Amino acid sequence: MPVISVTGLNLCYGKRQVLQDISMHVHRGEFYLIIGPNGSGKTSLLKGLANLLPIAKGKIEILGKSLTSYTRRQLACKLAVVPQQISLDFPFSVAETVLMGRAPHLGLIGIEGAADHALAREAMHFTDVAHLADRPLDQLSGGERQRVIIARALCQQPEIILLDEPTASLDPAHQIQIMDLMERFRVEKGTTVIMVSHDLNLASLYGDRLLLLHNGRVEVVGPPNEVLTAERLAACYGCAMLVEKNSLGQMPRVTPVPQKYSLVV
Amino acid sequence: MFSDLRLGVRLALVTIVLAGLLTVSFLLGMGIGPSGNGIFELLAAVFGNGDPQSVFSVIVWKIRLPRIILAAAVGSTLSLGGLVFQALLRNPLAEPYILGISGGSAVGAIGGMLLGFSPFPGMALAAFAGSLLILVLVVGLISGNTSIGRDSLLLGGVMMNAFCGAIIMFLISITQTSEVHQILFWLMGDLSMSGLDRLPVLLTILPCFAVIFVLARPLNLLLAGRESAASLGINVRRLTMLLLLVTTCMVSLVVCQSGLIGFVGLVIPHVLRLLLGPDHRLLVPACILGGASYLILCDLLARTLPTSGEMPVGIVTALIGAPLFIVLLWRSRRCR
After folding, report:
1. In angstroms, rounded to a whole number, what is the distance separating the alpha carbons of residues A223 and B188?
2. Whole-Å CA distances, B293 to B175, B266, B325
3. Which of A16-30, A87-101, B133-147, B163-177 is predicted with the least confidence, judged by mean pLDDT?
4. Alpha carbons B31 and B47: distance in angstroms, whole number
5. B23 CA to chain A: closest CA distance, Å?
6. Which residue of B has its CA nearest to A73?
7. A83 vs B231: CB contact, 8 Å cut-off?
8. Average pLDDT estimate for A56-85
């Protein structure tokens, strides 16, 4: 049984329809990547899965139950979201932020106990931010902040974790660090990882399956070598793409082709 | 270090220290005034050794005590209101007065007064309606768009204030009775008109405090953003509506009693956030106690600084608060 199952989904931002007739099925423990050009509806799809956008048409099932039958709290116990950015106007410390992941398990007026503090500590060690515990969030680098938000999600003990471009604006070393962290998360905790990414090569290196969105519709779903073909990418992105085999593990490696080389391809 | 202590211990420490401050402010407010100073006379009056009919005793019990209780209620409500608005609108400069919420309740209250409503519940309800109207306008201005948030919110509030000010002036200009002076004094923020009989009305703010304290942890989650809070299991819309209603209710209630006292909701939450960090489970009780002490002390200044008579306490709070607001605005621009 898939952990997430979407059939015939339409999503709207106000009056504007951003997703049309989306169907997708994600299996337990899968590393599932949503890719596509700007404005193709990747982030909207992620918000739809987290019940942050109302469903205009169709059905989303999480762990075999309709998404709309969950209360926010019940959903938060099963599914964690790592947003692209969180507000830093009122910076909490790293430890306080991570501990907030316990909120759905505590209810409205619960107080964190020793077990919750232990979980938060474990999560901070897992994402390697324990040494920053007392630092306010606004004093951290982008990569550190992203690891803190991932630790908060870990602290939520979810079965599914959704991430919205966690590697955007990070240098290559930090990109790999975040991706490795999510791979470890998936393997060690058995968590299903669904990630929106702009980076086709990271998607190719880590994804079990990729879903390519184009103009609000599913173009194709499948393993990287089936999805990342030169013709399809050129059609979706409107730019010539060179697709080769990566010598690391035979996954496709994608290079957008600059105009001056366009005759070579 | 303070932040290493457990939440319960920190909460107890904060409460004890600030309750101590409140006690000291209370005694100062009771003991000092134009008509006689002296902690010994005060203690005598309080513990019944003095003559209960003496002038000093009457002043302490009948004039200063109600005034101090009113100051405490108004101070705690306004600082708590500032704290909640800052969190809900995720804008460190939000405050009931700056947003125009206080102005809206003033319009309602004056309108109610001129229509001959009784102070309670008639005027209070009119004030509540006025502030709700402004709240809907201000929130409507920013809803659906988080990126324009900060500046347009403040600008919107300034305009609301200007508009409410115009309506108030209009209402005053068509008033022909001797009430004009009284309304003007009340507008500047004045605590001198309180009597013991008005105080039971203020008890209705206590349930509001309780609701906000219970909701302090969800409020923390809201600070990281609406979607982030929703994904942590918070029903953001319901929480926001409940808090806005409760806060507006208590603010309009105290505005009816005290008039427009500005910047309390800016100064106190900021000072306390600097000292205690952003955790609302500490800040809510701290704002209640700290705000009460602050306004008692401001009122003490308002009573004792002028060589003859006294000035409205709103002048003191604005003299302290407005420069702080400008400093904060300047700092927040520099950070970006």
Report:
1. 70
2. 36, 15, 20
3. B133-147
4. 14
5. 29
6. B233
7. yes
8. 93
pLDDT number for residue B142: 66
Residue B147: which pLDDT band, with cuts at 50, 70 and 90? very low
Q: What are phi and psi of A157, to 5 degrees?
A: 50, 55
Specify the pLDDT at position B181: 75
- CA geometry: angle A5, A11, A12, nearest 5 deg: 170
Q: Does B237 touch chain A (CB under 8 A)?
A: no
Polymer length in residues for chain B:
336
Between B63 and B335, the more confident residue is B63
Query: Poorest-confidence range of A245-254, B127-136, B183-192, B227-236?
Result: B183-192
Helix (H, G, I), strand (E, B) or coil at B306: coil
Rounded to an integer, what distance in angstroms lies between the CA atom of residue B140 and that of residue A40?
29
For residue A200, give the nearest of A159, A158, A244 by alpha carbon.
A244
Residue A160 bridge partners (DSSP): A79, A192
- Helix B179-187 to helix B149-173 angle (10° resolution) is 170
| B12 interfacial to chain A (CB closer than 8 Å) | no
B227/A90 CB distance under 8 A: no
- Alpha carbon distance A93, A100 (integer Å): 11
For chain A, say whether B235 makes contact (Cβ under 8 Å). yes
Query: Whole-angstrom Cα distance, residue B304 to residue A52?
Result: 55
Mean pLDDT confidence for B141-168: 74
In chain A, where does DSSP find H-type helix?
Answer: 42-49, 72-78, 94-99, 103-106, 114-126, 142-155, 172-189, 200-206, 224-227, 230-237
Distance CA A217, CA B94 (A): 42
What region, left, alpha or beta, does residue A240 occupy, with left being phi > 0 and alpha being psi -120 to 50 degrees?
beta
Residue B213 CA, chain-centre distance (Å), reads: 16
Closest CA to A228 of A247, A215, A241, A217: A241
Spatial CB neighbours of B20, under 8 Å, sequence gap ≥ 6: none
For residue B62, give the DSSP letter. Answer: I
* Interface with A, mutate which of B232, B240, B276, B329 (most A CBs under 10 A): B232
Q: How far is B274 from chain A (nearest CA, A)?
A: 11
Helices marked H in chain B — which ranges? Answer: 7-31, 39-46, 55-58, 65-88, 96-99, 101-114, 124-142, 149-173, 179-187, 199-202, 205-214, 216-222, 226-231, 236-258, 264-276, 280-304, 313-335
Cβ contact B234–A72 (<8 Å):
yes
Is the backbone peptide bond immediately before B278 cis, with ω within 30 degrees of 0? no
* Bridge partner list, A33: A195, A210
B228 touches chain A (CB under 8 A): yes
Cα atoms in the 13 Å half-sphere on the side-chain side of B30 = 23
- Residue B60's pLDDT band (boundaries 50, 70, 90)? confident
pLDDT of amino acid B141:
73
* CB A196 within 8 Å of CB A34: yes
B215 touches chain A (CB under 8 A): yes
pLDDT at A125: 93
